[in-house]
Amino acid sequence: MKFTDDAEKSQFIFLYEQAQTHYKHERHEAALKACEEMYKIWPDAGPVSELIGHIYYFGIGDLDRAIPYFEKAIKAGPRAEMASLGLFHVLWNMNRENEAFDEMRRFLSLSNSQAYTELLDDMTKELNVAHSDEATALEILELVRKKVNECR
């Protein structure tokens, strides 16, 4: 995104910081309003979409409304790890495990992720899934997915 001038860039940064501050202080409607103003400057802003996804998921608890914002953030930046993790957790908490695993697979096929690696480690321990020390995250993912599906 190229801003038309420094004033527009400064306004965007101000609004983003304002939205984050509102979110941290649980003023979710004010945070969403600041995000709407940012969309007027940068309609396809991945970071804004990600923030809105977090507001809906973690702040308001509206999982259904969080999904399209995480998806929009991922479309804007396929390697946006926090958006990917947000979408994974929303889907997981909606009992849509296979879709959650699909998102994890998509991200891991593009980039390494310490957060996903730790999540997989926790899952293998909890589900008692054995794997070799040389197994890749994607291989472990498939073992965990199989075990989760068996437990249904």
Question: Layout of SSEs?
Answer:
Blueprint: H1 6-24, H2 28-41, H3 46-60, H4 63-76, H5 81-93, H6 97-110, H7 114-127, H8 137-151
Helix pairs in contact: 1-2, 1-3, 2-3, 3-4, 3-5, 4-5, 5-6, 6-8, 7-8
Strand composition percent: under 5%
Q: Helix/strand/pairing class, anyone?
A: mainly alpha
Radius of gyration: 18 Å
The best one-word shape is elongated
Task: Name some characteristics of this structure.
Serine Threonine Protein Phosphatase 5, Tetratricopeptide repeat; elongated; 152 residues
Structure description:
The protein has one domain: Tetratricopeptide repeat domain (Serine Threonine Protein Phosphatase 5, Tetratricopeptide repeat). Helix 1 (6-24) runs parallel beside helix 3 (46-60). With 152 residues, it is mainly α. It is elongated and about 55 Å long. Helix content is 78%, strand content 0%. The protein has helices at 6-24, 28-41, 46-60, 63-76, 81-93, 97-110, 114-127, 137-151. The protein is built from eight helices and no strands.
